[in-house]
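Sample intake sheet
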Amino acid sequence: MAEEAPVQPDFSNPELFTPSMRQFVEVKNRYPKTLVLFRMGDFYETFFDDAVRANRLIGITLTKRGKLTDGTPIPMAGIPFVSLDTYIAKLVKLGESVVIVEQMGTPGKGMIERKVSRIVTPGTLTETTLLPEKSDSTLLAIDWPRKKSAPYGFVWLTLSNGDFRAEEVSAEAFASVISRIHPSEVLVAESRRQALREAHPELVVSSLPNWHFDGRRGQEMLCSTFGLANLDAWGVSGKTTILAAANALLDYTAETQVDLMPFIEPLKLVKESEFVVLDPSTRRNLEIDQSLSPLGDGPTLFSVLDHCATAMGSRELRRWLNQPVRDRQTAQIRQEAIESILSTGSLLENLRTGLNTLPDVERISSRIALGTVRPRELASLRDALPRIQSLEKWLSAQPLRFFAALGESLRLPAMIEELLAKALLPEPAVLLRDGDVIASSYSPELAELRHFRDDTSRILLEMEERERAATKLQTLRVQYNKVSGFYIEVSKTAADRVPVRYQRKQTLKNSERFITPELKELEDRILSARERAQTLEKALYDELVAKLGERAAELLAAAKAIAELDAVTGLAEHAEAHRWVRPVLTDHPGIRIEKGRHPVVETTLENFVPNSCRLEDGRRMLIITGPNMGGKSTYMRSVALIVLLAWAGSFVPAETAEIGPVDRIHTRIGASDDLARGRSTFMVEMTEAAAILSQATDKSLVLMDEIGRGTSTFDGLSLAAAIAQELVQKTRSFTLFATHYFELTTLAQELREVANVHVSASQTRSGIVFMHEISEGAASKSYGIAVAQLAGIPAHVVRRAKSFLAKLEERANTVDSPLPNLFGESLLMPPEPEEEAGEQPSEAEADPAMLALIERIGSADIDSLTPRDALRLLYELQNEARAIEMPAAAPL
């Protein structure tokens, strides 16, 4: 149905609405900007503007339901009860928040009571079906400082594991920290909402009234929530912006979770100095976990390395890659674990087998803390506990401190397994409302109720046998039907012989029906057994979850240990399969990589050409020249990714690698407009360059690719030279500087810290062959025209370009000669006439180039060629063949 614009009624006028619609209006008045899903029978309905909005967002049918008291139709769109999670997932993915209103009463018994059960927002997801399996959903609150020089307050919470952190953030680091946290939803004061949305349109921003951002109240709330007298131990006392953001975040969490406050770990104060800083541009260019491909489906560093057996291991690995540490000990402990796994026989295979069968303990534990865990999730935890216990025994016996520490975290109280084994049925129902979750042996009362619920026929048969024996009436039957209920039936002829305790209930043509006090009591118990069993089972299940909730912190610690073990096991598996080595992390500044490879590209190529890199004092900048498509960008990215992997605690794709301290990785690669903010390609380029110059230090790794190409030649060359000089002389960063401005190669003669390297290429008679090798020294030429020829530029255009190039080079060699005017008559060549179809050379006309090609193929000694020589020969032959197919051209 086409979308229509309803007349939004006056929600302040209750006389317009029916009693049930007044319940909806009451909720809508509390949450005017949020979609309200209102439970009515088997559907969750939306009304008025919400219905139109839901129809537009997720395509549910827009219809009408009744009218207001003034006759206005009520627009409505509904979601089936069984499909709720599917549609909520779609809405949350679109950045929407949803209020869920549940029925609390039983239909048919007057007005049904309804209340808000939960509010689902992008940053407060806890349902397994709604959360991305391999990434976290994080809620971030930001408070602005009162003074420009003061830091922002960042506080964030991951509800699915209780991780609760805070950080003071400078204005310069604002974007970098946002990209590191990667929040699903950001909370700000109403007065800041518009400014943040304009600066970061990619964020899902929710606002709260300004009074929620109250530092004094935040301190009181943190103390009361965690039972503390003060916050000195956490290091946040007096940090006003952090306390204000914490107050807003806890208020929002309490409101959205209603009666289900999650488990939250003590607040941890984070400092930027703990991590290798990766700005948004760097994360994007290095494709850590998001591809640069237009569809976003290309391989990334995370997707290539993710061999984890569990989803929680994948999430831990993603965190390691996105937050490489600066602490050498932390990184080395992970690398020691990988080395130990690879050096111990079949350990890798055994660990993989043990981890493969484990469920997502982290999210099960968080849902236990919330009280929303489902029966099958508890059953999977119960079944996993013996395997976790086996892992704990093995890890605790290991000498390596990393494994021993994980073993301690896996040492769970025996009561957890005992309680789950005793309380749950072997195969519990999917949902509690379906019944048959708690084992009958767990509760004698539940066992008795199930007996009356499930064994009615046997109970009646046993009573019938007793009554026949007591009355000697062989025609007596104890039966039940929906009309008469339970009754004792005897024939007419035997009716006068029934005991006095039999009370006549119904007379039929050939029989009499009776009821006894015992049968009446049995009827009441049997008919109420199902409802009473469900009520009791729910109470027992809630009690079970509450007991387990007391152990939520220990369960989450165990989940964290499993995730870390899974992450290092996955990294070990990749390292073994791709011949990665353990890097040496040193305090000595510099980067020394022998035969390094790009960790992603090497998995897509059969023969990847490795390259080395040496950056150290006296050699802090490499000017990289060479042709496009030669591999300059791949080389620079491979160096950055090897550094990132080393400090994330992984092995690296190289023959050897020695990596010194790195505080930041900055990249200026690629060119694109930022239309959303009205910035040109060159403006984006200069903005990123400015950020690098202001933030990079002598411990930073900087990648600059083709800086200055977005403007005129002289402007671009001047800017590139000035930026390079600044990076060498003042910032003193370790820099890879790729450029097509050959004039910059002279910096190596003028600046002590600069060295030239180039991408090798071979120019043959028929075209260019890329060697993808990095060699010392500057490139001899650009090969731009050769690359254009490979790209399919018409032959006559290529020849004209070569002519222009020859004249430009001739003028450039003339002292004081101005640059030629390419569009003046003196340089322009007349257009070449088009060849007619019938003028192709005949086969009889022997082409010398063809003969040479045939002779070269025939004389090639294929068996003696190395793979690299074979690849070079193949390129040369291909280019010669292409040249032969082109029309013959006069020499330039």
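Comment: Confidence is low (pLDDT under 50) at residues 1-6, 815-829, 834-845, 886-892. The two ends are 68 Å apart (CA to CA).
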